[in-house]
Structure formats: structure tokens, C-alpha cells
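Re: the 474-residue chain
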Amino acid sequence: MVPDDEGGGLMRADLLFDPVDGLDEALAAVDAFDAALVGGLLRPQPGQAAGVVELADAVAGTPLAARVAEAADKTVAGAAGEDHFVALAAARAALLGSVHDALTARVTEAVGRPVAEEAAPGGAGGADHAANLLAAARSWLSDLARAGWQGIDHELVGGAAPVVSAMLPDPALRRQAMLLDGFAAELAASCPGATLERIPVRRWADLWSRALLLTLPGATGTPVAETATGRLLPLGIDVQEHATAVQAQVHSVFEPADGGAPRLVRAAASAPKPDTVVGAGLWQLLRPHLSLLTAVGEGRAMDLDAMPVTAEGDLIWDDAHARMGEPADSLATARVALPTAAAAATAPLDRHPARIAVPVLLEGYEAEQDDDGVAFRIAGHRLPVDTDRIPAAGPLTAEAVAASGACIALLRWDAGEFHAQPLAVERTVRKKAVAVHAGAWAGGTTDKAGVRAEKAATGAVDALRERAGRLLRN
């Protein structure tokens, strides 16, 4: 991504900074409904009722119009049932999906990259015997909507526990169970709601609406999967860490062996963790699940043979279908292969602006650092750099980003503007170009700081594995 008058991967950098028609209005309708959820929908006050009506008005010209209008009327009257809450959640998801699509179209136009065609949805997920569990989940989520975030207490939030416990043994319901479990844990940590000084309004509304829609029959259909045979060229690793879990997602370009067009794909590994394992120690938990991490750390490609991959571009990783390949520099990959790599279409329920993460190569910018953080000056515009997303599990730092001249990043959208999340940068050290990768320690390292961090985490990781082994033996 460089200014269009200097050539390179980005054809129209200015498009990232131009307003998108209708975006503010769609988000305003979502915000109005989210505000109504704060106080609850059992007996909505005039301000809350207006927020529900505004959501219904925003989808008046869509196939959802009649059902959402009915749901809004029932909610305003304090007589809404589960079906009405589902309709409101669907309207909210549709609006955020339209925002996602508009922003993604803008990015696609800016980078000039092809987009793969959407595949037909998979078959319905879940078995008939699980219908009662999904209904129980909807009932709990409906009770949450009636109480509102200010009305939550431990008794209400605790109602999710038996539902989650019954869902977890069923692999077809594990996705819903994990979402409900995490959502309930957040709410429990915030009880009682009446005493909260600050409420994560958008986040809880996102979790509520997504959880509700995932309880519908067929919502978690089996992904349509094909197989991938060819060369995988890693671009970088996005690490997402929480107190009790960590995930590493590797963004790559896949070049089919049959000479087909290259495409963007992802491979991810996740693992539970104790809160004492931080920094480079995270890789010890993740390496056993994804050999690709070693390839990234060593700067190598991987050769895939019939590796399963979904229509959304997610590799269903199996080491039996992969072997280590030749050296492959990620910045070279970004310069040569990335501009022509097609992006996979996004599944309908995944269309949310927070999920936008488009790999791009940034060059020809001026890096600047001030009290507002690091930013890249591109085509006369300021592109903020989200250095808070740089993991502590690698050598990449905000200072390295500020001193860089090229950057592989994920283009994200938050708080009304695009941001760049660095995965790797190129900087000049003693007149020589040096690359610094966020995932450089993924496969192990001789770096002194990385070695110290891994050594400090070894005891905690060994203890975790020993406890897990004892539980399995018992």
C-alpha cells in the first residue's frame, strides 16, 4: 500500500479516508437500540422505545421489515417474546453486516485486490435432540434483554450455567456453549448491574445478538470445505491473548499447485492458559497444535497436500497434510504475491466491522509518533497504527514501527476510522534493511529477551500439563 502517484500495491489510498454513504446512519440506529438494552426491554421507557423504533425504521426497506416492525411494536408495549427478540437481533446484525460490506468494498477498491465468489452455505448444524438446549439458551438471552445490563444480578446470570454444561459435551453445540460461557462470565464479573459506572454497551449487545442468532436452527451450518494443495507463504501472525486463553492466527498467501490464482488464507491455533504464562511463554502452549508456527519463526514456506480449507479461507490444520518448505521472506511475499491474492468471502453471521482484518503492505509512508501514538502519513492522510495489538510474545515494538519504512499490517476499522495492526516491519539499521516480525519467536528463538521469557514460562507450562495429565488419568 503506497500513495497512488508512487505506484505499488495500493491504487487509491485516499479511498480509505473518504466518508462512506449511509454508514453513520446505520451505526446510529445500532447505537440507539444498544442504548435501549442498557435499561432493559421489559417495560421500556420512552427513550428506550425510541431506540427500538429507530432500529425497525432502519430496516424498513428490507425483507426483514414486517417482522422487525411487529417486534418493535410488541417490545414498545412490553409484550415481546423470544421470536421478537430474535427479529430485533437479526435487524441489528443486518445493519452491522451492511457496514462490514460497505467498508470491505471500500478496502477492496483501494487495494485493487480480487474477491473470491461466495460459496453455498453448508448444511444445518446440530442435532434434533439439541433443540431443547438451544431453546433454553434463547430463553436465558431473552431474560437478559428484559432485565437489561443495569438489571443483571448473579441469579439471572447464573441461569446460563446449566445450559452451558449441557451443551459442552456435544461438539455440534460447543461454539454456542463457549460464547454463552464467556458472555456469562463477563456479566457475572460485573454484577450487580445497578452499580456499574461504565457499561460496555456495544460489546455486550454484540455478544447478546450473536448468541441469540446462533441458537437458530442451521445457524452454525457445517462449513463447506475443499482441499488445498500447493505452497503456503506466511505473511505474519496475529496473537489474541486473554487471561485464560490465547490464539495465534497465521495470515498467509496460498499458491495452488495447479497454477490457479493465489488466495488469502488463515490458520489458527488456540489453547487455554494460566494467567502466569505471558510473553514468549505463549508459544509453548501453541506449538504442539500448529507446526506452521515453526515455519513462520524460521521464515519458511510450507507445502500443503490436500489440506482442508473452508470457503471463508480458514485452513483446518492437520500436520499430516503439511511439510516444511523452502525459505520464504514474508516482505517479498507481500510485495510479489499479496497484490494478486484473492480474499475469501465472509460468512453472513461473521459480517461485522470488528472482524475486518485485511492483510496489506504499507510502503512509501512517513512514520510519526506523538502523544496520540504511532501513525503512518499516507497520501496526505494520517493512518493510525494500533501498537496496542503488537504482542509481547515477539521482538516487534512500537519504536520499531515508528522507525520503519515498510510494514505488513492488518487493516482494521474501529471508532469510525481505519487502523493498521503491524505484523512485521522493515527498518534500516546501519544502512541495511532489517525485518522485525511480531511472530519471530513462534518457533523458538536465540534472542536473549525471548530466551529469558520462555525460560520463565517453562515452569508454569509444565505445571499446567502435569495437572491436565492427572485429571485425565483420574
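The longest helix spans residues 82-111.
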